[in-house]
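Work Package 4 report. The design task specified in the project plan requires that, given a folded chain encoded as structure tokens, an amino acid be chosen for each position. We show below one input record used in the internal validation round.
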């Protein structure tokens, strides 16, 4: 993520294309290794097609379907990373036009915004999610990070432009 301020009333947040390419590549490699290991593709008998070996293995051990379908949950993340890697993602807070834009498309007006929210999710790794909460109850996710000071600084910069309060939710 890169934050730039071309003028005192404009703040632009740009997602790193390189990090999304890395994320996407890592997920693809992990899924390939997962399936290769799970299906024991290294033990395909000679003369048997890998797909037939896979079907035989799944019919002999039906519980494996759970493990076959589990990596499918990462498919939306792969496509999202691919989209950002190709098209890019840029969120602009424009104080002159009083709009929030994502890739030059209007998401909300400043008058539609209730407050900024920093949500902290504690677990093995603590994660901080910065969102813009709208008056109608929707939210716009701005950035997620494990670095609390980065999120707080970003929230303060955005709050200065939007002229709203920052609410912390743990």
């Amino acid at each position: 993520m890169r934050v730039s301020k071309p003028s005192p009333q404009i703040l632009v947040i740009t997602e790193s294309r390189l990090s999304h390419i890395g994320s996407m590549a890592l997920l693809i490699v992990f899924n390939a290794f997962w399936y290769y290991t799970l299906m024991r593709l290294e033990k395909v008998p000679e003369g048997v097609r890998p797909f037939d070996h896979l079907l035989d293995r799944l019919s002999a051990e039906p519980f494996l379907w759970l493990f076959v379908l589990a990596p499918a949950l990462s498919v939306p993340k792969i496509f999202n990373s691919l989209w950002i890697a190709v098209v890019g993602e840029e969120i602009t807070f424009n104080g002159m036009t009083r709009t929030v834009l994502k890739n030059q498309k209007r998401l909300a007006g400043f008058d539609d915004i209730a407050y900024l929210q920093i949500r902290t999710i504690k677990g093995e790794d603590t994660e901080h999610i910065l969102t813009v909460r709208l008056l109608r109850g929707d939210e716009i996710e701005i950035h997620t990070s494990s670095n609390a000071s980065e999120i707080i600084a970003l929230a303060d910069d955005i709050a200065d432009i939007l002229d709203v309060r920052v609410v912390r939710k743990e």
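The chain has two domains: 1-88, 111-170. Validation will be extended to a larger panel in the next phase.
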